[in-house]
Amino acid sequence: MFCYQCEQTAGGTGCTKMGVCGKTPEAADLQDLLVYAAKGIANYAHRAGQLGLRSKEIDRFVVEALFSTVTNVNFDPQRLEDLIQQADKIILQARRLYEEACRKAGKKPELLSGPAAWRVPSSRQEMLQEAQAVSIANRLEAYGPDAAGLQELILYGLKGMAAYADHAMILGVEDSSVYAFFHEALDFLTSDQAQDVNALVAMALKVGQVNLNVMEMLDQANTGTYGHPEPTSIRISPVKGKAILVSGHDLRDLELLLKQTEGKGIHIYTHGEMLPCLAYPGLKKYKHLVGNYGTAWQNQHKEFDAFPGAILMTTNCIQRPKDTYKNRIFTTGLVAWPEVRHIGPDKDFTPVIQAALAAPGFTQDAPEKRITIGFARNAVMSAAGQVIEAVKAGKIRHFFLIGGCDGAKPGRNYYTELAQAVPKDCVILTLACGKYRFNMLDFGDIGGIPRLLDVGQCNDAYSAIQIAVALANAFGCGVNDLPLSLILSWYEQKAVCILLTLLHLGIKNMKLGPSLPAFVGPNVLKVLVEQFNIAPISTPQKDLAEILG
Ligand code: FSO
Ligand code: SF4
């Protein structure tokens, strides 16, 4: 195996024996093969699409295949093998679609080689052998760290974007031009152009551009289905009774579980990236959705262990379940761990409910603790007048966006220390699971405007961008001229697609940590520094001094 797609990659260079995340070499190799198959499908789907023929089934499969290979999603070799078998059928289907499109257009079909001509071998053993030939390590050797790293940057951006496209699709929001771009970009990665650094950089920025649309689609899907998040005081301490903890990112899974548990005397808690759900009118209306329990994904061993109920993982980030809760944790959607019970597409959560009823639940109410969340674009913009006045009057000096994903490696305390050190006349916007480093601290307010504004999940970076654009319009300047600094933490591929979106928007001077991606080659890093002035985080004091002057 060779994998360097996330921030915790072994030695900062690549996991080669076993994933630090718990991914086995077998699962890693099968994921590489699944990506290879997705490229083969895209070779045909892209050409068929250019001739006007598309297939929803093919489009959705490619998105789900990519999402399945995102960090901390699918660790189950059997499910990955099943996806590869399915990919084999879809490649043929895409080929027939392309041939039909050619026939209609009176064109002779191109004879495609590489992944398009690939057929799945019959045994897992053979699959694993073939995976060696398509490994990243080979491409690194063939094309060098800059070109091969940029190819991976594009792929990882597509993986992250696939996650968002999948969530939007689940809520009925799809766009054929987005699917067409997935095929175009994957097809590009198999072309000769994918060795040209300039062409690769251009394609990476295009991923950022399309990801902005996809995040907008997901915003539409979430707010269209559940209303706009509202500032909401939520409980972060448990209450007496049976309990289910829901982690991941999928709002629909939470809604379905809430419906199925209504009147059953079970309390539902959010965990990790599900916390923002507590601010959506269409979800918080359920009285048995009682609050949030725990913090970010990397603390799950301790938190799930201590949780006296059932646990449902709707997406990443799952870690190897401990024996103490193996029998009461469940996966659904694309997330999978071998031997963990999986709730299928019928979304019948009965086993989860039974496990919750069989577990002791909380025996008493914990002392009440609360925080306020729900400052997505609609809520912030409705207070825009007040915010703008406060800036003009010099009451708000600067905005900091301190957000992104959390992780297990040391060095992430930087974000807690930075948030605490931000001067009292500055406002902090935050989003994604990195916020747990400081979201339970009391930051107070500036003339009634809370100093800590939780915008939502990682995909709500869209909301943060809208807020920044609205502020820039109000002040008649560009986003880079605002008194706003972005200090981001990254972990997996969703953070990659968001970063590409910010680069596509021309956002400069971002600080990135806790370490820089291993897949960014030395010359690409130079471009990022020269064109965008991206810098690694240093110390909170130094960074603050530099930002505030
Ligand atoms: Fe975090 Fe995990 Fe949301 Fe990621 S829970 S790390 S960037 O999956 O997507 O922020
Ligand atoms: Fe290693 Fe991250 Fe890949 Fe897991 S996802 S194998 S931790 S680089």
Give the SSE layout.
Elements: H1 25-50, H2 56-68, H3 77-105, H4 124-133, H5 136-170, H6 176-189, H7 197-226, E1 232-235, E2 242-247, H8 251-261, E3 266-270, H9 281-284, E4 289-292, H10 300-306, E5 310-313, E6 329-332, E7 341-343, H11 350-358, E8 370-373, H12 377-382, H13 384-392, E9 398-404, H14 413-421, E10 426-431, E11 445-446, E12 449-450, E13 452-456, H15 461-475, E14 484-489, H16 493-504, E15 511-513, H17 522-532, E16 535-536, H18 540-548
Helix pairs in contact: 1-2, 1-3, 1-4, 1-6, 2-3, 2-5, 2-6, 5-6, 5-7, 5-16, 6-7, 7-16
Iron/sulfur cluster binds at residues 3-6, 8-9, 15, 19-21, 23, 28, 71.
What does this structure look like?
- The chain has 549 residues and is of the alpha/beta class.
- It has 3 domains: 10-224, Up-down Bundle (Substrate Binding Domain Of Dnak, Chain:A, Domain 2), CATH 1.20.1270; 232-358, Rossmann fold, CATH 3.40.50; 379-548, Rossmann fold, CATH 3.40.50.
- It has 18 helices and 16 strands.
- It has helices spanning 25-50, 56-68, 77-105, 124-133, 136-170, 176-189, 197-226, 251-261, 281-284, 300-306, 350-358, 377-382, 384-392, 413-421, 461-475, 493-504, 522-532, 540-548, and strands at 232-235, 242-247, 266-270, 289-292, 310-313, 329-332, 341-343, 370-373, 398-404, 426-431, 445-446, 449-450, 452-456, 484-489, 511-513, 535-536.
- A 6-stranded parallel sheet has the order 4-3-2-5-6-7. Strands 13-10-9-14-15-16 form a 6-stranded parallel sheet. Strands 1-8 form a two-stranded antiparallel ribbon.
- The radius of gyration is 23 Å and the shape is globular.
- The structure holds iron/sulfur/oxygen hybrid cluster and iron/sulfur cluster.
